[in-house]
Amino acid sequence: MSEPWSSLPEPLAAEVAEVWRHVFPEGFPAWLGNAGLDEADVAGALARSPFLHETLERHGDLVEQALTARPLTQPTTGDSLRDRWQEYLAEVTDEASLHRALRRFRRESQFRMIWRDVMGLADYHETVAAASDFADTCIQAALDWLYPQACEQYGTPYGADPVTGEEVPQQMVVLGMGKLGGHELNISSDIDLIFAFPGKGETRGGRRSLDNQQFFIRLGQKLIQALDQITADGFVFRVDMRLRPYGQSGALALSFAALETYYQDQGREWERYAMVKARVVAGDQQAGKVLMESLRPFVYRKYIDFSAFESLRSMKAMINREVRRKGLENNIKLGSGGIREIEFVVQAFQLIRGGRDRELQQRELLAILGELEALELLPSTVVRELRDAYIFLRNLEHALQGMEDKQTQLLPEGELSQARVALILGFESWQACLDTLNAHRDRVARHFADIIALEDEGDSATDLDEGWQELWLSEMEEEDALSWLGEQGFEDPPASLESVKELRESRTVQVMQSQGRQRLNQFMPVLLEALSHVEQPSVTLERVLQLVEAILRRTAYMVLLLENPGARKQLVWLCSESPWIARQLAETPLLLDELLNAESLYHPPAKAELEDDLRQQMLRIPFEDLEEQMESLRHFKKAHILRVAASELHGTLPLMKVSDYLTWIAEVVLDHVVDVAFANLVSRHGYPRRADGSACDTDFAIIGYGKLGGLELGYTSDLDLVFIHDADPEESTDGDKSIDNAVFYTRLGQRIVHILSTQTPSGQLYEVDMRLRPSGNSGLLVSTVTAFDKYQRNDAWTWEHQALARARGVAGCEQTLEKFETLRHEILCQQRDPSKLRQEVVDMREKMRASLGTPESRQAEVFHIKHDTGGLIDIEFMVQYLMLSQSHDHPELTQWSDNIRQMEELGRVGVLPVEDTEKLRETFITLRSTIHRRALQNLNSQVSGDAFPGEREYVRAMWQKVMSS
User: Fold this and answer.
1) Where are the alpha helices (DSSP H) in 267-338?
2) CB 212 within 8 A of CB 199
3) CB 363 within 8 A of CB 182
4) Element holding 50 (H helix, E strand)
């Protein structure tokens, strides 16, 4: 008698023979046979999915119960899932047992869905419907149990019925987004949710009244924990709330009116795209219908709206950059010809014509494809090819995920995994599977390009003078080559020719594969020609060659520059203007993507647009993937700083705006870092509790000092930070692995510093300096607001109050930030002895000058713009002295934290003559502008000893006037 795995292909047969002994040490169990499964069925399942193997081995009792309740030969339906949950619900007595029941229910349901999918018992339609119904069931089940518990603790929320207007108890409405909303969920996926409630009001019947929004925020936190928190039994779903208004920084639950107002006034195009799939998946279905109807005008415009194409092009360009950055060409969702391109094609037509053609106002992609054919918006052949490709890609996606019960869209690299996928999909070999996949992807990419073509920025130069090619390929005599370079404007032909020769003969170039070498031979003549159009081509060549060397093994960037003359032109101009930019591009070649659009390159986005850009970029990265979060944040920062630097060089941003933009970038990054770190800790320990037992939102804030606080960041500035929180230090978190609030916030601070300062392949996000916190390096990393207040009033040195003059809240909880601003105002407005204060400020200035300024013996040769007498620090100390001495009489002085507006306010209230404040302001800007410009040239802040004589003399005179007793 043959073994049950004998018909399986190698190497799977050998693997199943090995695992069979571990799974069934006492022989094939009778209960599997009683469930209608023979040994060959089970061997086939073990070959296809290590997840099934692990579940049978470790949770055989649970599988036995599941198969007794419903055999695997029967399809998984919404009714069967809901019925089965009722049996698990019977075991639930408290929140901990709810968590356990949901997780055991998940394991059983995943086993059933994956088994039927990989064994070919379920088609695409059953699998996505079952996965979606399972998610709906779990969300509703958790909500059904948690809502009455919350009502018992906080009272029942009352408010106006959205239809009748009468006062009624309110319930939550849970919107499912993405594939969950479309009832097309993956077999192993996270879920995107938005929490809503009908309207304003308060709870009744609890120990104390609670605002409805606070009630539903706390209920939402509990719901997320029930599904997302990892316990000994695993988790149910990774829950992603970042599609809600304002993303992670927005309220966790919003009223219908707030949602409608947000989308009407601030909704972005990509949010229209997301809302196409929105569906009420749990909670009050009737109220949910009212909400969805109110949002319909935002999603579906009454007129034919071709602007959607441009929005989708932008989104696709962003995804292309991500694919390049992460090397995701083998990602069947994001890569060329993947699932996302089919979705874009379909949803483009929905957004463009959905307002007029109501047939397109559906959620399921395949149903909409049929409507596009019926409306003659797409030819039948295109619809058929897109439909076939979509089903194939989604089946492949389920095969990839069903192997390990893991969310992935990457093609496998190992031989075993490749053999599994081929077997699941019914192919004789992995190569046959790959051939079919590539054929589908080619067709999808072609249709995508025809329908939503990315703008072509031009072809590579075809009429290039042959001399450049001859120069690069060393087909010219050396004397002719030198003469050629001189005629083309190269100021140092010998050096340039030597650099070209060194590159051509380098080891890296010599061992390049034929395709890469061919691309280099196309690229270098084009690059050399482009260099001839800038000032100092020889100097610029040296800078650009750093980049060329960096991309020799990543020749896709050469193709990008070959095919985009505009990007090529920006590259050589920027490198000619700034060695600092040249180095940034060499260190991070992905920044070349920023050169594709000159309009955006020289007009960096304002803060709201920065927030929106970061939110879109990070939506596809789970919070728990800390490594990828950190890499993406570093790229985001570098890309936007490049835009600021390019704009400064181009003259489209004055100095004051440069610092503003650099500061906004830091603030947007810090806000996201707080969200990531907080979510990371909450997933482990739960939310910190307040004294009344309720869960905190974050109650944490970051205070920026120095250049960050004063809106004066430079290109390489570090961040002076202080962390505070306003939670009760005596309380603890509400998770299974509860810790004291004080420990939670200390770990939160540590995680934030780690994310910001760790060196990754993309470098450091920001260097962080925490020495300005209470008691400096010996103090606690995170202080309570109360402890911070006490320290500032009783123990802080004068220089710490000087630093407070330039401090402001930059990220975190709004309420905590407001408390800091109140505290700062009160400290700065304290009555002080002017003479004593003046002496302390002068003494501190002398210490700084002695340790950081130019030695007296060299002052005739060198002037340090920042630290020497007559420099920036003198101006800053004067302003800080006046702020501390005058704010008691002029409290309005404290409203600003930056030197410029503080100077202007000192003039406005009459502390200094306006002509002096204006002259000081001009001097300050002149000196800071010089530092900025020198930074872009990789130069320090030291200039010739005879520089700025008039400005320095004026600052010295003002110092005598203000600081002499």
Assistant:
1) 269-275, 285-299, 307-326
2) yes
3) yes
4) helix 50-58
Contact status, residue 707 vs residue 717, Cβ threshold 8 Å: yes
User: 3-class SS at 724?
Assistant: strand
Specify the pairing of strand 808-812 against strand 768-769. Answer: unpaired
Peptide bond preceding 25 in cis form (omega within 30 of 0): no
* Cα 251 from Cα 182, distance rounded (Å): 25
pLDDT, position 305: 58
Domains detected in the chain: 1-122 (1.10.4050.10), 307-451 (1.20.120.330), 466-601 (1.20.120.1510), 610-828 (3.30.460.10), 834-963 (1.20.120.330)
Backbone angles phi, psi at 511, to 5 degrees: -100, 10
Task: Quick: pLDDT tens for 521-573.
Answer: 989 999 999 999 999 999 999 999 999 999 888 888 888 888 888 889 999 99
Give the tokens for residue 556. Answer: 């896709």
Of the candidates 644, 563, 548, 552, the residue with the CA atom closest to the CA atom of residue 596: 563
What is the per-residue burial (b if ≥16 Cβ within 10 Å, else e) of 624-650? eebeebbbbbbbbbbbbbbbbbbbbbb
Contact 636, 669 (CB under 8 A): yes
Helix axes 626-650, 607-618, angle to 10 degrees: 150
Query: Per residue in 26-48, pLDDT tens?
Result: 889 988 988 889 999 999 999 99
Reported for 754-757, long-range contacts at CB under 8 A and 24+ positions apart, including other chains, are: 755/626, 755/629, 755/630, 755/633, 755/673, 755/676, 755/677, 756/670, 756/673, 756/719
Q: Which DSSP letter does residue 267 get? A: -
User: Is the CB of residue 142 less than 8 Å from the CB of residue 227?
Assistant: yes
What 8-state DSSP symbol labels residue 454? P
Residues 6+ apart with CB under 8 A from 391: 124, 366
Q: How far is CA 730 from CA 685, 741, 744, in A?
A: 16, 7, 12
Tally of CB atoms within 10 A around 750: 15
Q: How many CB atoms lie under 10 A from the CB of residue 793?
A: 12
CB 698 within 8 A of CB 674: yes
Under DSSP, the state recorded for 411 is P
Distances (CA, A) of 948 to 103, 763, 786, 863, 930: 70, 36, 46, 9, 11
CA-to-CA distance for 749 and 721, rounded, in angstroms? 10
* pLDDT tens readout for residues 782-809: 999 999 999 999 999 999 999 999 999 9
Closest CA to 111 of 11, 234, 7: 234
Residues 179, 181, 183, 189, CA torsion sign:
positive
Give me the DSSP letters along 235-263: -S--EE-TTSTTGGGS-SEEEHHHHHHHH
Radius of gyration of the chain (CA): 32
Helix (H) or strand (E) holding 223: helix 212-228
DSSP conformation class of 70: S
Q: Quote the pLDDT of residue 692.
A: 61
Cross-strand bridge partners of residue 862 = 944
Q: Taking the chain, what is the end-to-end CA distance rounded to the nearest angstrom?
A: 106
Q: In whole numbers, what is the pLDDT of the chain averaged over residues?
A: 90
In one-letter notation, the amino acid at residue 351 is L
Say how far apart CA 191 and CA 620 lie, in whole Å: 12
How many residues are given for the chain? 965
The answer to whether 226 and 218 are in contact (CB under 8 A) is: no
For the entire predicted model, the pTM comes to 0.80
Is-contact 903 924, C-beta < 8 A? yes
